[in-house]
Amino acid sequence: MLAECAAICARETRWLLNQCWVLGAEMDDDVMDQQKYCSAALVLASHLVAIAAPYDPALGHRLPEVPLHVARQIMTRADFIQAYDHINIFTIDSRGMVRADSVPMQSAFREVCTAEGFREHLERTLERIGAIESLGRTREVVAKDLVGGGKYVFEVGKRRGGEGGEVAEVGMRSVEGGE
What we know:
The chain has helices at residues 2-20, 32-51, 68-75, 81-86, 103-113, 118-137, and strands at 65-67, 90-92, 97-100, 151-156, 166-171. It is an alpha+beta fold. A hairpin with a 4-residue loop joins strand 2 and strand 3. Helix 1 crosses helix 5 (103-113) and helix 2 (32-51) packs across helix 5 (103-113). The longest helix is centred in the N-terminal third of the chain and has 20 residues, at 32-51.
């Protein structure tokens, strides 16, 4: 019986890793959406491991849980939690509480989230996601638009709908003699 219990827990750990493992700092930017999904799950799993109370013989096994709105806040995503419920990673009960889908899944959370180097690996993944998102928000100024007398006018420090800010005008000039 104990061997079957261990097999069930190992199967849940493989399921968790197959559905929600993070790739770390080396991940390609093409997998960013999938990695946002995975990292959010592991951030919540980590939190549930951290708040788990030790076994109490009077109460029995109690899976740690958080309200749905708190789970969304922990993950910083509101849109993933139902998908995790659908694939049996987390469950949302009728009281609006979120917890591991089962005792073996909570065991998988504990195994994965307490493994040596996990916290750093997750952090590197989150930093890479942030770096990729930052690149997407960067605006590129293309010098070809300046050829033929074109100019850019930049206003720095201006508030939306407000006044002020410094104005800088950028244009292109011809350089004679190669310098």
